[in-house]
Amino acid sequence: MATTKLFPITATERKAISYIADGSKTDNGRLISTFCCSSDPAQASRDFASVRACGTGKNKILSQHFVQSFKPGEITPERALEVGEELCEKFLKGEYQYFLAVHIDKSHVHLHVIFNNCNMYDYKTFETHEDQGCKKERAWKKLFDLSDEICKRHHLSVIQHPELQKGKKRWEWELDKQGLSWKSKLKRAIDEVVKHSVDFEDFLAKCADYGVIVDYNPDHKIDLKFMLAEHKEHNPNARFTRARTLGGYYETENIKKRIAQYLGTMAYVPRTKIRVITQKPQNKFVQDAIDRGNMKIASIAKNIIAKYGIEPEQINAEATAAYAKAASLVGKISSIDSEIKELKEHRNWLREYNKVKLIFDEWQSLSGRKQKKHLENNRDEIDSYYFYKKKILEAYPDGTIPSDSLFAKKIKHLTDERSKLQAEQTAASAKSKELMQAKRDLEAYLRQYEPQVQSRDQQKKKKRDDLE
Fold first, then answer.
1. Phi-psi category of 146—alpha, beta or left, where left has phi over 0 and alpha has psi -120 to 50?
2. Where are the alpha helices (DSSP H) in 120-216?
3. What is the pTM of this model?
4. Which CATH code fits 3-160?
5. Residue 458 neighbours by CB distance under 10 Å
6. What does the mean pLDDT of the chain come to?
């Protein structure tokens, strides 16, 4: 069944990309897909670095690496590549460069994705966007949920109730298989109490009847703990086990839900009211937003249409194109900067050479004691003459050395061209950032205001499914 892992890369990004791109694992590179970076591992790492260079550069994490594995024999490598691309599209939203590779060297098909830790549009880190602030669920939870959602749509098996799974040592796992571990005994005892309780208070009261000692303190962060009574008898110093150590099923809120399910009761969720406005704008997306009462969405969409002349559905493609243009211009600007720097350096060599050449020529024109004395007094300048002459001849081996005025003319031309490209790059970068921000805003408001209206039959069916 499909499983997913996510972890950061802090030092070996190039090696990591090279590893997942190994031809023996990816059918000679056929099972590789990339986004906004090269399919060559070394160049892909440099492409990642060029984007990170636009940020603060203070984060130690270079990139993120996640693995998605499938049940043996359940999926073909080509289909796994499609699933991986769909997961990247939904998880990364076209905002991060990534390198995806499907591996076929094991009994089960699995894929690796390494994506840049720096966002392409605002140059902030993945942690800043996904793992910081007051967030209920972190990025890894979002990744796991998306993976399960996509796998179910492709009729692939997933882990049932992954939030309830806890890691075990090998010996614990073996004992669990035999039903001999103390955790298994404790969980079975708690399960019995849940089945025979009418509410949570009744559950707490009945625990002792089933050989379970319970410690409940709602004022504490760790509010619920358990212990088998037989453990306490054998060891007076035995410690309680936290509910979450046993798994999500045994935490306070889930125990309450399980009791309610056994009793056949369900919490009532009121329907969301829909506000309908009949005024019809030109754009279908805007009309739909107004019909749903989402005036903020309608306003954002109208602004994008008015400013860029594009439909809201085209935002992602236009933002990616703008970013690609900005990135290519950054490369051109960097090349011009290097050329200007080189010309200025050569110009400085020529100026220094012309200064010391006068002293060298004078030394050459002398002879005897005068020449010797002149050399003693000006040895540094004469040594500099040979140094700069060698540099200039290495730079211009054909002997055609530009004049100072020609250097100035070339530098001015390149500086003007750089200013023009810089303006274009700034505009393209601003456009991509604005479009991506509009995309985020639209998605956020759509999630916030999406009507959750179900028919009465659908609600009844959902209730029956939950009870089952």
1. alpha
2. 126-130, 139-153, 170-178, 182-195, 200-206
3. 0.44
4. 3.30.930.30
5. 10
6. 79
